[in-house]
Amino acid sequence: MTALRPILLSIPHSSLFVPKELRGMLKIDDKELLRNIDLFTDRLYDLEGYYKVIGTICRICVDVNRAPDDFSKEYDMGHDGVAVNTTYFGNPVYKKPPSEKLMDTIVAAYHTPYHEQIDKLMPKVKFLFDCHSYLPRGPKVKKDAGEKRPDFNLGNRRFSTSTREHMVFARDFFKKRNYTVGVNVPYIGGYIIAHHCHRRRVPGTFVPGMQIEINQALYMDHDTLEPLHGNIEEMRALLQEFVDAFYGEFRKSL
Asked: Contact, 4 vs 49, CB < 8 A?
């Protein structure tokens, strides 16, 4: 068996699973639920030769890319936070919001293990890519509402989680292939890279890292929510080429 290269792919938002404790409380239908997750990212980022951690709960229930204690009331009118109350399109997720006690239990069951898996792999890896997809245009609850989004969005929390050299290489890789790229726009990166990554590995348990968003228009039909013929395979090959090239460029300095 070929040894894995020391890069970790975090794929947090591909799961469709809704815990039975929450299923009957949902107000949204299955189609809106699907529009609020990173559909098919488990296939897009199924790259050979690298470590992977894959989320096991639908992000509409628990978002592992948010802090586990982020239950603040400011999120009652927004979709952000570890417990999502409002969809991207401004609709309430639940008929009646779950109790804090129930959500504490759900967060402990799904959020904590995800980050424990990352922590367990940290001694084996030297870089982390947090792997996502996003809607073709900014949704109602986002600052870029209605605006067309780039093909790729690369975030490193304004250069705190990876170096300029890492970001320039990643940006130029996609631009040279005629894709549009946003650097820290519209997203700078969430809790996963904030919690596990630092450009200079401070503290020593951290590694450099970057969040990647791929525009869903590149691989799926947003009316049917079905993949476009051959596009997932094409995008996966592109992402494989990218991570391989990134590793080849930085393997000595990581």
From this structure: yes
pTM of the model: 0.95
Has residue 238 got a pLDDT over 60? Answer: yes
| Mean pLDDT, rounded, of the chain | 94
Name all domains of the chain by residue range, CATH numbers in brackets.
5-250 (3.40.630.40)
Q: What are the DSSP calls for the chain, one per residue? A: -PPPEEEEEEE-S------HHHHTTB-S-HHHHHHTS-TTHHHHT--TTEEEEE--S-TTT--TTS-TT---GGGGGSS-SSS--B-TTS-BSBSSPPPHHHHHHHHHHHHHHHHHHHHHHGGG-SEEEEEEEE-SBB-TTSTTBTPBPPSEEEE-TTTTSS-HHHHHHHHHHHHTTT--EEESSS----HHHHHHB-TT-SSTT-B-EEEEEEEGGGTEETTTTEEPTTHHHHHHHHHHHHHHHHHHHHTTT-
